[in-house]
């Protein structure tokens, strides 16, 4: 510790050179999205400012008044529970490795979000925008597009997932409008880029890890998300933790009637890291099964992702080369999913 002398005595200072530190967050803000549906200009602007502050300081916020019907959410949990309870063979029949467009079932331990770990202790079902097989983009090989695949049962699963997708997409559009306000881009900046989104919906099941836990094999290893933002529904079983800039894990417990929204790496790139894609992980030690529903909102496959001019300038050069949404997401899937891993080069 260095000492700085002031007229009011000495002050201790950690020696971190000249770079200022981001204040480590200890709390996650709650933002009311009601104004994004019919609120006045000033109220929507206030939502944008709250989002801006949350994305700069924390990278996560809780959202109230999403417009998503609680009945749709409850029905999706019911369907997810029934799906994961199916025999393994029924789930494996739609294994994601058989899909050309990243749809289907991901068994326990086949994903590894933290490259230093040994696989994530969750199973998942992945779906995304329904695009017909003869669509021009599908035929052109834009491999995040295409038809969904569905399991043989349980009754109501497909309808619940489709209903949830439609509603959460509408909430996501509101969030994009709030982000655009937050970034001073004009409220509808993102609208043309989310007409055929690479947005993915998953349901997750985490068994409870009771007794001693190997810290290299937890529900979902430490990671940041890939897309623009994630909208997460967690039921009532706590597990999610966020890493602050002091390297401490902060709990993000379920709060009834909210979603958690967090910035993904694509938005962090777009904003030159002004918005933080905060690292997080999940460990279910509750003694109960845990289910959660993340929706990863990526824009259209061909949307260019290049640092916004408002987020770079003299003394603050763009840190990231331009890419496109689709290429960026695919490159991240390649690192994470066992079925996409390229075989090692022969020695
Ligand atoms: O289930 C959770 O609480 C977190 C899930 C998550 O971080 C993810 O799927 O990227
Ligand atoms: Fe995540």
UniProtKB/TrEMBL annotation:
Its cofactor is Fe(2+). GO terms for molecular function: 2-oxoglutarate oxygenase/decarboxylase (ethylene-forming) activity; metal ion binding. Keywords: Ethylene biosynthesis, Iron, Metal-binding, Oxidoreductase. Pathway: Alkene biosynthesis; ethylene biosynthesis via 2-oxoglutarate. It holds the Pfam family 2OG-FeII_Oxy. Residues 197-299 form the Fe2OG dioxygenase domain. Its EC number is 1.13.12.19, 1.14.20.7. It comes from the Bacteria. GO terms for biological process: ethylene biosynthetic process. It catalyses: 2-oxoglutarate + O2 + 2 H(+) = ethene + 3 CO2 + H2O; L-arginine + 2-oxoglutarate + O2 = guanidine + L-glutamate 5-semialdehyde + succinate + CO2. InterPro entries: DIOX_N, IPNS-like_FE2OG_OXY, IPNS-like_sf, Iron_ascorbate_oxido_reductase, Oxoglu/Fe-dep_dioxygenase_dom. PANTHER family: 2-OXOGLUTARATE (2OG) AND FE(II)-DEPENDENT OXYGENASE SUPERFAMILY PROTEIN-RELATED. Belongs to the iron/ascorbate-dependent oxidoreductase family. This is 2-oxoglutarate-dependent ethylene/succinate-forming enzyme. It comes from Oleomonas cavernae.
């Amino acid at each position: 510790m260095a000492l700085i002398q002031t007229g009011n005595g000495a002050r201790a200072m950690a020696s971190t050179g000249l770079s200022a530190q981001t204040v480590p967050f200890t709390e996650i803000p709650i933002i009311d999205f009601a104004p994004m549906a019919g609120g006045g200009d000033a109220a929507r602007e206030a939502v944008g400012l709250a989002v801006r502050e949350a994305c700069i300081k924390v990278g996560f916020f809780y959202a109230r008044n999403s417009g998503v019907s609680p009945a749709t959410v409850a029905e999706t949990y019911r369907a997810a529970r029934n799906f994961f309870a199916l025999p393994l063979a029924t789930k494996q029949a739609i294994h994601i490795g058989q899909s050309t467009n990243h749809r289907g079932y991901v068994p326990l331990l086949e994903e590894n979000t933290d490259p230093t770990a040994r696989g994530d202790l969750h199973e998942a079902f992945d779906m995304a925008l329904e695009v017909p097989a003869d669509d021009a983009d599908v035929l052109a090989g834009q491999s995040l597009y295409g038809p969904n695949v569905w399991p043989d049962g349980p009754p109501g699963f497909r309808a619940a997932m489709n209903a949830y997708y439609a509603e959460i997409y509408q909430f996501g559009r509101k969030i994009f409008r709030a982000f655009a306000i937050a970034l001073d881009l004009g409220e509808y900046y993102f609208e043309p880029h989310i007409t055929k989104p690479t947005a993915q919906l998953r349901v997750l099941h985490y068994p409870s890890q009771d007794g001693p836990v190997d810290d290299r094999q937890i529900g979902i290893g430490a990671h940041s998300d890939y897309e623009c933002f994630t909208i997460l529904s967690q039921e009532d079983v706590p597990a999610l933790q966020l890493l602050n800039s002091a390297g401490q894990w902060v709990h993000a417990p379920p709060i009834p009637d909210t979603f958690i929204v967090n910035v993904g790496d694509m938005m962090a790139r777009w904003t030159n890291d002004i918005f933080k894609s905060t690292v997080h992980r999940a460990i279910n030690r509750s003694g109960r099964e845990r289910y959660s529903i993340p929706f990863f909102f990526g824009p259209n496959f061909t949307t260019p992702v290049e640092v916004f001019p408002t987020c770079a300038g003299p003394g603050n050069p763009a840190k990231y080369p331009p890419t496109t949404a689709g290429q960026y997401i695919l490159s991240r899937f390649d690192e994470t999913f066992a079925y996409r891993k390229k075989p090692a080069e022969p020695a």
